[in-house]
Amino acid sequence: MSSGTVQTVSSNGTYTFTKPNREAITLLAGLGVEGDVHAGVTVKHRSRVAQDPTQPNLRQVHLIHAELFEDVAGAGFEVTPGDLGENVTTRGIDLLGLPTGTRLHLGAEAVVEVTGLRNPCAQIDTFRHGLLKQVLGRDENGEIVRKAGIMGIVLTGGEVRPGDTIRAELPEGPHRPLERV
């Protein structure tokens, strides 16, 4: 079992790439972040809606590890919490190393089930030219490595604030690695 902390929470009721930081967000079971444009039972991301608006929303909550911002800063990119559209910025937990189905306990009540990796899109380069190359790479086998955080669905609602603890509850084995959602 691994753990970390919530560094920042962010949400936005309109479609913009970045999301303003908040004092708190409320997660709603089966929907996502209250008042956020991506909340809902069915998919809300524009590209996904265009493909099939009836798809289940496996991207209700977007989490990014703050350590990513430090990594890209080394390449000359200034990125701060909320800039990449995430709802929860974490610290101290290896989000990308979690298996599919991990349950993240955020604060006192909220539980988010990890559904997969965020697939970074070209909008990242519109935000900061060249940043996409920093959050999307290839490993030694030539396989794509996505570093722009993870996505999840809300199992149990609750308020989430900066400073809250995050506790990862791994699913029963065998574990399935995260894939793009």
UniProtKB/TrEMBL annotation:
<dbReference type="GO" id="GO:0030170">
    <property type="term" value="F:pyridoxal phosphate binding"/>
</dbReference>
<dbReference type="InterPro" id="IPR005302">
    <property type="entry name" value="MoCF_Sase_C"/>
</dbReference>
<dbReference type="Pfam" id="PF03473">
    <property type="entry name" value="MOSC"/>
</dbReference>
<protein>
    <submittedName>
        <fullName>MOSC domain-containing protein</fullName>
    </submittedName>
</protein>
<dbReference type="InterPro" id="IPR052716">
    <property type="entry name" value="MOSC_domain"/>
</dbReference>
<dbReference type="GO" id="GO:0030151">
    <property type="term" value="F:molybdenum ion binding"/>
</dbReference>
<dbReference type="InterPro" id="IPR011037">
    <property type="entry name" value="Pyrv_Knase-like_insert_dom_sf"/>
</dbReference>
<feature type="domain" description="MOSC">
    <location>
        <begin position="19"/>
        <end position="169"/>
    </location>
</feature>
<dbReference type="GO" id="GO:0003824">
    <property type="term" value="F:catalytic activity"/>
</dbReference>
